[in-house]
Specification:
This protein has 458 residues and is an alpha/beta fold. Helices cover 50% and strands 13% of the residues.
């Protein structure tokens, strides 16, 4: 049965709705304000929210906006004791499933809840079906080189089992795509794929991130929270940049992997899970073991099926196929006809060393197709965007011509997006390091990455 979250500052209403929906065999959570409700949404699988408009700390309309932004598949029924037509129209335009005025008609609310939960199920099923179309992650592993064909074969073979997989390779080579491919090809493909970037989590928080915590277990732990192991139960847990974990964290992960059980921070209750483990790193893990930075026993646990993803410079025969793929992706985003590259431009691309690997190639194709108006990308444009400043600047500036066609706000956003992309490339897509170079907090940079739709390819 579905999970319902009731957010209302009146305890009496929360109690009545909890009793009614529990009688209907729903699992019910409740919160007295919007912030508490959003915390529950971040830790529990909710299918329907019943939301009061007038709330302390954060108004119901603002909570609705945040829910529809971060959890678009969750349906929201708005309730209010001060209803008016304008408010109802606004709520529905923002994505509310329906609007009810207090005092509530409980029969009507129960019917609406059933319909909303059914709609949530349809959205979830549609999302799963889309994930199985030819545009899924397996099709993203582009190339026909012997190395790529060998990777595809290993993915197909390893996906049939629950064997642990360790993926190695430089930054930007596509390790995350390989992990997704294994998950999609497995019997767990309808269960969660949960990713943890071990390099992005401070050592003081990684235990809570992986295993969860109980309310009050440390400062800031205002609610019970599931960890990534628990969230991945039945599915796949992808430990990205696993070699960046501290030795203390490695010891706890080793125990969890061996026994498939753990305790949340602040709890003595043992939780048992069924999780497939895939790990990845851009480091030479045997060197890390020799230097005392990585546990050898954890390496042997993870390295059941090793997959090495080579650098782009070592499989240059795949570059034309990758360029064609990224051009089509960009054409779909811009709603334009796919661009072509002249033979001379392709020679420039093939001669380049691509230190940022597939990620750098993808960003180059995006930049050059956005910033030039050429139907066929010329050798000159390829050089300008691969080797900026290598040639003397001419009076004609295609970049300024592009910005000149935009409004100030559009030009500012485009420049900021391109600047952040450039800085991310310079810092190997390390968000914390890039944020430091930009002089902003990592949380602010994450927000901008989300705002501009920047993809960070592993």
């Amino acid at each position: 049965m579905a999970n319902i979250l009731v957010i209302d500052d009146e305890n009496g209403i929360r109690t009545v709705l909890r009793d009614i929906f529990e009688d209907e065999k729903y699992t019910v959570y409740d919160a007295g304000d919007g912030i508490e409700g959003l915390n529950i949404l971040s830790s529990q699988p909710i299918h329907l929210v019943i939301l009061d408009v007038w709330l302390p700390n954060m108004g119901g309309i603002d909570v609705l906006k945040k829910i529809k932004t971060e959890y678009p598949e969750i349906e929201v029924i708005i309730i209010s004791g001060h209803a008016n037509i304008d408010l109802a129209v606004k709520a529905v335009k923002l994505g509310a499933f329906d609007f009810l005025e207090k005092p509530l008609s409980l029969d009507k609310l129960i019917t609406l809840a059933r319909n909303a939960v059914a709609m949530n199920s349809l959205k979830t099923e549609n999302k799963k079906l889309k994930a199985k179309t030819p545009s899924d992650n397996l099709s993203e592993i582009i190339g026909e080189s012997p190395a790529v064909q060998a990777i595809r074969k290993t993915i197909e073979q390893s996906a049939k089992s629950d064997a642990k997989v360790l993926i190695t390779g430089d930054n930007g080579t596509g390790k995350e795509l390989v992990a997704h491919g294994i998950h999609q090809g497995s019997m767990r493909n309808e269960q969660p794929f949960i990713e943890v970037n071990c390099a992005a989590i401070p050592d003081t928080l990684i235990e809570s991130e992986l295993f969860g915590h109980e309310k009050g277990s440390f400062t800031g732990a205002v609610e019970n929270r599931k960890g990534k192991f628990e969230m991945a139960d039945g599915g796949t847990l992808f430990l990205d940049e696993v070699a960046d974990m501290s030795l203390n964290a490695q010891a706890k992960v080793l125990r969890a992997i061996q026994e498939m059980r753990f305790e949340r921070v602040g709890s003595e209750k043992t939780i048992t899970v069924d999780v497939r483990i895939i790990a990845a790193t851009n480091k030479d893990i045997r060197e890390e073991i020799a230097s005392g930075n990585f546990r050898e026993d954890l390496f042997f646990r993870l390295n059941v099926v090793p997959i090495f993803v080579p650098a782009l410079k070592d499989r240059k025969e795949d570059i034309p196929l990758l360029v064609e793929h990224f051009v089509k992706l960009q054409a779909g985003i811009q709603n334009t006809a796919p661009r072509l590259f002249s033979n001379e431009a392709m020679e420039i691309i093939m001669d380049y060393s691509w230190p940022g690997n597939v990620r750098e190639l993808k960003n180059f194709v995006e930049r050059v197709t956005i910033m030039t108006g050429e139907a066929v990308i010329s050798e000159k444009s390829a050089k300008e965007f691969l080797y900026p400043g290598a040639e003397e600047k001419k009076e004609s500036n295609p970049v300024m011509e592009k910005f000149g066609m935009m409004k100030l706000s559009e030009a500012r956003d485009e420049f900021e997006r391109m600047f952040i992309l450039q800085k991310l490339e310079e810092n190997d897509y390390n968000v914390a390091k890039t944020a430091q170079k930009l002089g902003i907090y990592p949380s602010n940079l994450h927000g901008k990455i989300k705002k501009f739709g920047i993809e960070i390819l592993k």
